[in-house]
Amino acid sequence: MSAELLSEFPFAMTSTEPIAAKAGKKRGKGSATDGLMLRMYKLGNGLRVLLLADPSAPVLAYQTWFRVGSRHEQEGKTGLAHLFEHLMFNETEHLPAGEFDRQIERQGGSTNAATWVDWTYYQDDLPKSELELAVRLEAERMQHLVIQRHQVESERGVVISERRLRVDDDVDGFMSEELFRLAFDKGHPYHWPTIGWMRDIKRLSLRDAMAFYRTFYAPNNALLVVVGDIDEKQTLSLIEKHYGPIPAQALPKGHYQPLADRKPQAAERRALFKKPVQSDKLLMGYQAPAFSSDEHVWLDFLSELLMGSHSSPIHRDLVVEREIATSIGGSVTPFRDRGLWEISASLKRGHTAEELLSLFDAHVERVKKEGVRSDDVERTRARLLTEFYTGMRTAHGKAAQLGEFDTVAGDYRTLFDVPAQLRAVTADQLQAVARTYLLPERRTLLIVRPETPARRKAAQQVERA
Predict the structure, then answer these.
(1) Handedness of CA 116, 81, 75, 151 (dihedral sign)
(2) Under DSSP, is residue 13 helix (H, G, I), strand (E, B) or coil?
(3) Tens-place pLDDT, residues 417-456
(4) Which of 326, 366, 410, 452 has the fewest CB atoms found within 10 Å of its own CB?
(5) What is the pLDDT of residue 35?
């Protein structure tokens, strides 16, 4: 099977020219990376392969990005994508259970995986000499995973325990889940958590797991990203040999299509909970733009400017000077479709969530009316650029960024727009995005308060009983 070259692109990290993922646009070699070149290939079965030969260290990162996550599930079958991530480390037709990990670790490598809203990905970090091992093992489990009832039951138990630990018995996990449940209406795929509702996890069937594997773990729904000290021709030959015979599968209609735009929220949504905490906790989310939009860059920049460091205005005011909170921070969800700007805060004893909210709102209104300080913009720009370049230093970091941008934004080349976008952000853009998105009626807000001593004592008595 001959691989088709889809694109080639210089791995240049210093240009200030916007790149904007223009298909077919050719550029010169990037001086910062001595002419490293990215090449995207496509096999006849639809598998896309992104290669970057980087001889800076004798290692390689081998990642498989499947375009399936919790947003591709249905009500009643939530948690299936995450459950399947666990199943993928089990027995295959040619490997007993646990052998995948053992073979990787025996050669000094490590392996892991993650599931989220828009994707599930698998990562192998290995010495350069173990390329063939990674190709062989990953192709094996893409095609020959053994899925039987005892395996589903075993991994179901692991996921149930994980959910209890990270959500049911963890206040922060509980609040995050409740925020999305409240902010997104029932039926919207961001309404349910990636780990799934407990009731659904308990009833997912063997048939569900087998159908999920046959549908989504297909070469035409996957991207391989290989970065490191590799020979490109040899790597492509190995991939063609091991993956070429795997057949493509029919994907659900509209699988890659964006979600229909939801109506703007018309009124603030609030919820109050009592939990065994020492002081108030606050979590809120404003409706926010999708990952690939310029406004996402601006809002994320504004979030960092306001709360990203000890010198940031909101953090300095509420944590350092007034000392009413022990922490406050925010981030914009990097979702393919419109998500949330999440802000979380933990109050000090004697202070309330409402007190902090009033001061937070005053900061936001000040930004909307007066804008932001130019020196704050420049400090934030420096921090974000440093963070971006630091994340690209290793083979693993390069592969992860390339895989996420291709899977979520739709084209790996948009990754290289980021430095120019950050350098181009202006105070006027930050004020404009605040006026557009930071509206009280488009906010969802959760407050957790300490339980009363009487209620806590009653709960402990029930638990002991």
Answers:
(1) negative
(2) coil
(3) 999 999 999 999 999 999 999 999 999 999 999 998 655 5
(4) 452
(5) 84
Say if CB 444 and CB 103 are below 8 A apart. Answer: no
Name the pTM for this structure: 0.92
Residue 12 has a pLDDT of 79
Q: Which residues contact 92 (CB under 8 A, 6 or more apart)?
A: 100, 140, 141, 144, 145, 146
Last residue of a domain, one of 243, 258, 290: 243
Q: Identify the three-state secondary structure at position 61.
A: strand
Tell me the C-alpha distance between 170 and 206, whole Å: 29
282-312 burial string, b = 16+ CB within 10 Å, else e?
Answer: bbbbbbbbbbbeebbbbbbbbbbbbbbeeeb
Partnered with residue 449 across adjacent β-strands are 274
Count of Cβ atoms closer than 10 Å to residue 256 Cβ: 10
Q: State yes or no: pLDDT of 149 exceeds 70.
A: yes
Is 442 found in the same domain as 309?
A: yes
Which domain range does residue 372 map to? Answer: 269-456
- Dihedral of CA 297/303/306/312: which sign? negative
Give the pLDDT confidence score for residue 14 in this predicted structure.
Answer: 55
Going through 172-236 in order, the beta strands assigned E by DSSP cover 222-228
Q: Where does 196-311 show beta strands of DSSP type E?
A: 222-228, 269-275, 281-288
